[in-house]
Model the fold of this input.
Amino acid sequence: MKYKHHIEGARLTLEFDGDLIGENNGPELIELISEAIMKDVKYCFIDISGVRYINSSGIGVLITILTKFRNKNGELFLIKPSEHVKKLLIITKLHAIFNIVESKEEAIKKIDK
Done:
């Protein structure tokens, strides 16, 4: 999987492309997240529209990121999951714990409420 990231104020945006298999990028992503949180980043937007497949380790990475942000009174938003990823989130009942939105703008509106 490839990813891009950038930080704007208290917001980290990640764009994932490919297969989210935690063993490959997991430790690197968690380190990036930890460093961002130490810089007072409170919100994370992960655009997963380019993710075709997620395995259990990939789900573990997403849960770890979610936990790290919520432990600091922040939030994680998953942006525009593919139909396959949506089905996986529903089957695993994770759609109930993640904030799933169709756009970064929608996530920002939820923050600003």
